[in-house]
Design goal:
Layout: H1 2-7, H2 9-63, E1 76-78, E2 84-86, E3 92-95, E4 119-127, E5 130-138, H3 148-198, H4 213-261, H5 269-297, E6 305-307, H6 309-327, E7 330-335, E8 342-344, H7 346-362, E9 369-376, E10 380-387, H8 413-416, H9 422-432, E11 436-442, E12 446-454
Parallel strand pairs: 7-9
Antiparallel strand pairs: 1-2, 3-5, 4-5, 6-8, 9-10, 10-12, 11-12
Length: 456
C-alpha cells in the first residue's frame, strides 16, 4: 500500500514540488551569509559616503573654500540626521575640477587621477550650479573578514530562519499536496472512465476543467468515447441488419422448401426461380460482407493495370442499358476524347460504378435520365454518375456511405436497392485506389456521385 502511494503520480508531483522547495531553501541558506554581509556593507558604505559628501558640501557652503579639510579626515562625521558615522578617510577622497586628488586616498598619490575602475561611488559637488569638487570612494577588496556587527547581524538572520523555515516547509508540503491533487484530478477521472469502459459499464464523458495539455487529452478521450459509443451502436445495428437480411431470404427459401417437402407446393419453374433469387441475395450479401472485411483488414487485393476510362464507362453503360430500357430511364455515357489510361483494378471499379448506376436506377422514375461521365484534370480522373431522380434528404446525405444505411429506411431489398453495403464497399475500393468519392444531392432534383482517382 505504501509503495503504491509513493508510486502514484500525485505523490510524485508532491515530492517533486517539495524537493524543489527544499533545494531552494538550501540554495538560499548557502547564499545567505554572503548576500547579507554584502548588502549590509553596501548600505553602510553608501551611508558613510553620502555623509562624507554632505559634510564637504556643508563645509563649502559655509566657507566657500576647501580649506581646513582635517575636519573631514577625522574619525567620525555626522549624517543627515546628526548621528555620528565613521569615516574611513583613506577610502574616501575629493577630486578637484580636473579630477586630481586633493585629499589622501589609499594606494594613490596626491594630485593623481584615480581610475574609474577603482571607484565604487562618485558624486559631483556643486554650489550655485558651479562644480567645486568630486567625492569618490574606493571599492573594497573581496574577502574581508566579518566584523563584530556583521556577525551579530548574521546570527539574527539565522535565528529568524530557524523560526520561519519549518513554517515555510509546512506550507510548502500542504501546498504541494493540494496542487498535486488538483493537477492529477482530471487524470484520475480519465482513469475511472477508462476502467468503466473496460468493465463495459455505461460510458460517461469526462468533464474538462482546465485549459492545458491535460484538457486536450480529456477532450481527445471524450471524442474517443463518443466514437466508441457510435461504433457500438453501429455494431449492434449491423448485427440486427445482417440477421434481418439473412433471415428474410432464408425464411422465404425455408417456407417454399418445407411446403414442397410436405406436398403443399409443386416445384414449379416460378417457385424455383424465387428460391434461386433469394439464394442469390444471400450469396451477394455474404460476398459484400467478405469484401468489407478484407478492406477493413487491409488485405483486399487490387489487380491494377493501365485502363482507358472510356472502356470502363462504355462497358457500364452497355451492361445496364437493358435494365434502364425496361425501367424507362435514359442511360448515356459521355467522356472526353483521348482520355489517358489510368492505373486501376478494372473489375473493382466496374463494381463501384455498377453500384452507383444501380442505385440511380432504383431511385429514378420512368422518363428519368442518368448520365455517366468521364473527364480529367492534371492530377485526377473524374468519374460521375448523375441522375434526376428522387434525390437524398440533406440530413441523410452525410450517412449514405455508412454500412447498411438506406435512405428510405426500408428493409425490402427490391425497394431499398440491395443490402445497404454497396456505397460502403464503393468507398473502400475507391480509397484503396488512393481516390475519393463524393455525393451531391437535392431532394426532388436528383443526385450526383463523383469519384476522383489519381492519374498516376
Amino acid at each position: 500500500m505504501l509503495k503504491k502511494l509513493f508510486l502514484s503520480m500525485q505523490s510524485q508531483l508532491a515530492l517533486a514540488f517539495m524537493f524543489s522547495r527544499v533545494a531552494g531553501y538550501v540554495f538560499f541558506l548557502l547564499l545567505l551569509p554572503g548576500l547579507t554581509v554584502k548588502n549590509h556593507r553596501d548600505y553602510l558604505e553608501e551611508t558613510r559616503f553620502n555623509a562624507f559628501a554632505q559634510q564637504v558640501q556643508d563645509h563649502y557652503a559655509r566657507h566657500q573654500q576647501l580649506k581646513d579639510l582635517q575636519i573631514i579626515e577625522s574619525a567620525t562625521v555626522l549624517d543627515g540626521q546628526g548621528q555620528p558615522v565613521v569615516v574611513l578617510a583613506s577610502t574616501m577622497a575629493l577630486l578637484d575640477r580636473r579630477g586630481k586628488l586633493i585629499t589622501p586616498l589609499k594606494g594613490h598619490q596626491m594630485g593623481e587621477t584615480p581610475s574609474p575602475d577603482d571607484l565604487k561611488y562618485v558624486r559631483t559637488l556643486s554650489q550655485n550650479g558651479q562644480v567645486f569638487a568630486t567625492a569618490v570612494q574606493l571599492k573594497q577588496p573581496p574577502g574581508q573578514p566579518h566584523t563584530t556587527d556583521e556577525k551579530a547581524l548574521l546570527q539574527s538572520v539565522y535565528e529568524t530562519v530557524k523560526v520561519t523555515l519549518p513554517l515555510g516547509l509546512l506550507v510548502a508540503f500542504v501546498g504541494a499536496i493540494v496542487i498535486a491533487h488538483f493537477l492529477t484530478l482530471p487524470l484520475q477521472r480519465l482513469t475511472r472512465s477508462a476502467q468503466a469502459v473496460m468493465r463495459k459499464e455505461k460510458i460517461q464523458q469526462v468533464p474538462v476543467t482546465l485549459q492545458n495539455e491535460v484538457a486536450d487529452l480529456t477532450q481527445a478521450f471524450n471524442e474517443m468515447l463518443k466514437n466508441l459509443a457510435q461504433g457500438e451502436q453501429q455494431r449492434r445495428q449491423m448485427i440486427a441488419d445482417i440477421a434481418h437480411d439473412l433471415g428474410t431470404p432464408l425464411t422465404v427459401v425455408s417456407g417454399y422448401v418445407q411446403g414442397m417437402k410436405q406436398g403443399k407446393f409443386q416445384p414449379t419453374q416460378e417457385r424455383l426461380e424465387i428460391i434461386h433469387d433469394e439464394l442469390l441475395l444471400l450469396q451477394n450479401l455474404v460476398s459484400d460482407l467478405r469484401t468489407l472485411s478484407l478492406a477493413d483488414e487491409g488485405t483486399l487485393q487490387l489487380s491494377v493495370d493501365e485502363v482507358p476510362p472510356a472502356r470502363l464507362v462504355s462497358g457500364i453503360q452497355q451492361a445496364f442499358s437493358l435494365r434502364a430500357e425496361k425501367a424507362g430511364v435514359q442511360l448515356d455515357a459521355q467522356f472526353e476524347k483521348d482520355l489517358p489510361a489510368v492505373p486501376m483494378d478494372l473489375e473493382r471499379m466496374r463494381q463501384v460504378l455498377g453500384n452507383l448506376v444501380s442505385n440511380s436506377l432504383n431511385h429514378t422514375g420512368k422518363g428519368g435520365q442518368i448520365h455517366l461521365r468521364a473527364s480529367s484534370t492534371p492530377d485526377h480522373l473524374i468519374l460521375e454518375v448523375q441522375d434526376n431522380g428522387k434525390g437524398i434528404p440533406e440530413e441523410k446525405l452525410p450517412f449514405i456511405f455508412d454500412r447498411f444505411f438506406r435512405v428510405d429506411e426500408s428493409r425490402n431489398h427490391e425497394q431499398a436497392g440491395g443490402s445497404g453495403l454497396g456505397l460502403a464497399i464503393a468507398r473502400s475500393i475507391v480509397e484503396l485506389h488512393g481516390g475519393r468519392i463524393f455525393a451531391q444531392s437535392a431532394l426532388g432534383q436528383g443526385t450526383t456521385m463523383q469519384v476522383l482517382l489519381p492519374r498516376g
